[in-house]
Amino acid sequence: MYLTIKETAEYLSLPETYIEALVHQNKIRYVYDGQVYMINKEQFNGHLDQLEKAKKQLEEWRNEPIPEDPDVKDED
């Protein structure tokens, strides 16, 4: 499925200017029909999967309890 720059920006939650810059730098694949840049949505699936995986790992790390340190002395 192909998206316009505006639709791609909404899909990735990024500014349109950033997507335009990526297109002009050839960092993402696109098709130009003479009027509109069309970007293949499928090329972002791997990136989005990795992003979700990283979010889950970070959440697990944040929820992990801090282990008790036997060498901590109460100085009160």
From TrEMBL:
Helix-turn-helix domain: residues covered: 2-46
Domain of life, source organism: Bacteria
Pfam family of the protein (one): HTH_17
Keywords on record: DNA-binding
GO molecular function terms noted in the UniProt entry: DNA binding
Protein name (Swiss-Prot/TrEMBL): Excisionase family DNA-binding protein
Origin species: Metabacillus sediminis
